[in-house]
Amino acid sequence: MASAEPPAGRGSAAPTLALEDVRTAQERIRGYVHRTPVLTSAALDALTGARLSFKCENLQKVGAFKARGAHNAVLSLTDAEALPGVLTHSSGNHGAAVALAARNRGIPAYVVMPSTTAEVKKSAVARYGGIVTYCEPTLRARESVTERIRAETGADFVHPYNDLRVIAGQGTAAVEFIEEVPDLDLLLCPVGGGGLLSGVAVAAKSLRPGIRVVGVEPALADDAQRSFRSGVLQPGTDAQTIADGLRGALGDKTFPLIRAHADDIVTVSEQAIVRAMRTIAEIMKLIIEPSSAVPVAALLEGAVSAREQRVGVILTGGNVDLDRLRWV
Amino acid sequence: MASAEPPAGRGSAAPTLALEDVRTAQERIRGYVHRTPVLTSAALDALTGARLSFKCENLQKVGAFKARGAHNAVLSLTDAEALPGVLTHSSGNHGAAVALAARNRGIPAYVVMPSTTAEVKKSAVARYGGIVTYCEPTLRARESVTERIRAETGADFVHPYNDLRVIAGQGTAAVEFIEEVPDLDLLLCPVGGGGLLSGVAVAAKSLRPGIRVVGVEPALADDAQRSFRSGVLQPGTDAQTIADGLRGALGDKTFPLIRAHADDIVTVSEQAIVRAMRTIAEIMKLIIEPSSAVPVAALLEGAVSAREQRVGVILTGGNVDLDRLRWV
Questions:
Q1: In chain A, which segments carry CATH 3.40.50.1100?
Q2: Are the beta carbons of B63 and A285 separated by less than 8 Å?
């Protein structure tokens, strides 16, 4: 997706998103999403030398933070705009989140998925009543099928991350987090397309200017780090990282917000990601998906300086196929 | 253990435990244990036809509610009583809980474990600094080794469940639960030795007289149900239920409290227990141990009438050996 978009950096006309937009989103989605618990673990503090708090978005509706952005987008439509339904493409949690939000609004959700999508993700979208159209697993096929459905239905397109309504919704996770743990020094979250990181960075820096906000991605798919550090939006990679939710590239809305508000993007190894998943399961009794384990991996691997700091980690999702779960 | 104890029923001089004891325990252990989150799931409500709330003691310190009772027992000792340390026998979570509580008090914890105990449980006790003595896996060996250490050290014995201090501590889970969800119609928890069920029943019935409190155990180890229904304390079974935490028999303190305050004890199949564990992992993203899955199994199997009711379930613990996890 991003490869088809123009590069954007600090020099571009930056999209405007402010704390107020995130606050509005918070009011809008209240009652539709869980206020997820924040958990701590003395054992993990001992292991990392930091004072950690975990915002458990794996315990969110649809099992991922994506419920926030999808609800904000769908609920911000006027009745006339909402009537034809909403449309997205996703091979993951965003599709399920849009389907749930649309069901809550009482409108149809059209979800374009590659035919190669795992069964567990297909059935999640179907569970919430999403109308699925399968396409060939190519960018061109996805775009043409999406465009055809948009033309036929008039449905409103809700991009998985490159959409300010979605970004504002994801930012609500940071507002809740800082309400609960006001003295965070550092906030970590995964970065793929950057919807979460950009919303979180805007909200966290507004609420607590001294906080550091750092995105984490797999070293195998380090395009966001290269974009961030070079100032030039890099295309996504095809890298087969286990963190399959983080393969997307930044978009022309998320990139400038991240450049303006985040402090850094660091990377972690595949082995550290798997180890982090298992550590969270063993110590915290939580199932998280590989993409969610990435910030924990950064702490375990020392990819980010966190010792003796008050660190917030957003555990973004828990949707894994238990039969295929790889602990080692 | 219980087989060596006299039968006790409604006719016996019942041990006294009141809400006030549980309130005192709550004050005493505050800051030492987590106030665990209460979670809900629309998907599980749809699956069971009930309105469910889950008190997540799998997210408790040491990964189980046992932290509550152990802390209450250890913290209620006078300094003079505490000085020689505390002593228990346990092949499970109670040993780790007593070790942690003793470490927090700054006193030694002696834990007698069968030599056949799983490595994962041995290492949990060691992690919290417990001083482990292994014994032959027989009741006689356990009792003689425990008695010898008590004589040698003067340590205070903290029984895993048949101890009013422990029972009062476990009851704090129900107080917190009802504080958070005041309109519960039904409260479900597993029953093995009955420490949790007796404390929960005393607290819940005092706070909300109309509530039903039902214990659940594996059909393979239905001694608590037989005790409850016959009024005569039955010995434990050797049944190899997957819910290994529930093999103990009721004690002479827990039995009369349960007879006086609980409404029923129902049983579930082994298959339902495994299915419940997996359901909680898939839908709620929580790892629970088989003993914790038993009340969920009762809901899935219809062993307890819960439709259209407000049901509280205590998820008691999350300590499983991930390498041996059986999902199917």
A1: 19-64+164-324, 67-157
A2: yes
Substitution target in B120, B285, B322 with the highest count of A β-carbons within 10 Å is B285
Q: Phi first, then psi: what are they for B25, rounded to 5°?
A: -60, -40
- Beta bridge partners, B266, equal B216
What distances in angstroms separate CA B252 from CA B13, B87, B198, B259, B321, one per listed residue?
A: 10, 20, 11, 11, 32
The pLDDT-based confidence of B15 (bands split at 50, 70, 90) is: confident
Which residues are CB-neighbours of B277 under 8 A, at least 6 positions away? B288, B289, B290, B292, B293, B296, B327
Quote the CA–CA distance of A118 and A50 in Å, as a whole number: 37
For residues A169 and B328, give the distance between their C-alpha atoms in angstroms, rounded to a whole number. 37
- CB nearest B286 (choices: A42, A43, A286): A286
State the alpha helices, DSSP H only, in B30-114: 42-48, 66-75, 79-82, 93-105
The token pair that represents A178 in the structure block: 């800082």
| Nearest chain B CA: its distance from A206 CA (Å) | 28
* CA–CA separation, B273 and B294 (whole Å): 5
Q: Specify the pLDDT at position A324.
A: 77
pLDDT above 90 for B326: no
Structure tokens at A8: 């954007």
Q: What is the pTM of this model?
A: 0.92
Q: b/e string for A241-272 if b means 16 or more Cβ within 10 A? A: bbbbbbbbbbbbbbbbbbbbbbbebbbbebeb
- Prediction ipTM score: 0.90
Average pLDDT over residues B215-225: 97
Average pLDDT over residues A49-54: 98
CATH architecture for segment(s) B19-64+164-324: 3-Layer(aba) Sandwich (3.40)
CATH class of B67-157: alpha beta
Say if residues A59 and A37 touch (Cβ distance below 8 Å).
yes
